[in-house]
Amino acid sequence: MITILAGGTGSVKLVRGIATQTRDISVISNVGDNYWLYGLYICPDIDTILYGLADILDTDKGWGIKKDTYGFLRQMEMLGEENWFNIGDRDAAIHLLRTNMLKNGKNLSDITEWMCQKFAIDVKIIPVTDNSVETRIVTTKGDLHLQEYWVKHKGQDKVDGIKYVGADKARANPAAVNAIHDSKLVIIAPGNPLTSIGPILSIKGIRKELSKSKKKVVVVSPLIGNTAISGPATKYMEAAGMEVSVYGLAKMYSEVASHMVIDSSDRLLTRKIENLDMKVYETKIKMKDKKDEEALASFILKQVHV
Ligand code: FO1
Ligand code: CA
Q1: What is the mean pLDDT of the chain?
Q2: Distance from the alpha carbon of residue 10 to the mean position of ligand 2, in angstroms
Q3: Does the C-beta of 51 come closer than 6 Å to ligand 1?
């Protein structure tokens, strides 16, 4: 089995690539982005992986269902409700069912497993915890939920730090811990290190199991040079006092991983990363289409010897 630690948009491409190579995959999903709106529980990262594997993801945006319509949102607008979070009509059906199942006492793991069955996905998607962990962005104007900071306020305010509220009390999902333990390879997908992977690592039970397993853990860089392939990763890295480079990433991950895949153009940093006791692999890491996804996945499975 292969386990992949994943956020949403940045991670789904690699998850899809790996799924072309093997079906025995567990994806441990971030839950820090989860958000309550209109009484609905929205899990963007779980859904992005779900839609990506079901081949219904809107790949231009990197979230939501392709060709979705927005009648529900327009009606909310008409009723004077907030309209900054673009929930599509088909997407809304998922949130509605999920919320109803939670109300009926099911936990997020069971609901997600049920969703996987409904979408005929044989990859296991495991929420990192069934407890609440909320990624909050600390700005000069106070702290905001990630969705409020990034989507509502369009990432405008200066970031002073990042908090994972609830992480200290959250219980690692036993299925996630077991997946790490039982896998021959654990891949940290090229997600945002602080808002996609960070919340996963902030859960003690997960961090502990990864540290124990670090010989079989490989991290795939979400950066090329000092630029993120997508999203605001570098802004958050700066706020967290990290060096914005694959070396800065390597320092963050060296406690839980001993292999790292970087872009060939970053090869000047290879030696420096190897001094952190990590083995480095250089290749083309940007995934523009399904061919690239498959190529990177196959590179990892063939070249990374753990
Ligand atoms: N991201 C946006 O930038 N704007 C949106 O309106 C938006 C809506 C949305 C609806 C459902 C969903 O599952 C995800 C959605 N996202 C949206 C993406 C999501 O907020 C991401 O988690 C964040 O962008 C951070 O990665
Ligand atoms: Ca996300």
Answers
A1: 97
A2: 8
A3: no
Is the predicted ipTM greater than 0.90, yes or no? yes
* Architecture of the domain delimited by 34-123: Orthogonal Bundle (1.10)
Helix (H, G, I), strand (E, B) or coil at 16: helix
Probe target for ligand 1 pocket from 41, 147, 149, with the most ligand atoms within 8 Å of CB: 147
**Which CATH superfamily does the domain covering 174-303 fall into?**
CofD-like domains (3.40.50.10680)
Q: Among the atoms of ligand 1, which is closest to the Cα of residue 196?
A: 26
Residue 54 backbone phi and psi in degrees, to 5: -80, -5
Torsion of CA 265, 271, 272, 278, to 10 degrees: 100
> Please, are residues 42 and 95 in contact by the beta-carbon 8 Å criterion?
yes
Domain extents for the chain?
Answer: 34-123, 134-165, 174-303
Task: Say if ligand 1 is within 6 A of residue 64 CB.
Answer: yes
Q: Tell me the pairing of strands 185-188 and 2-6.
A: parallel
Cβ of 279: how many Cβ atoms within 10 Å?
A: 16
> Which residues have CB less than 5 Å away from ligand 2 (the ion)?
7-8, 33, 45
pLDDT value, residue 288: 96
What global pTM score does this model have?
A: 0.98
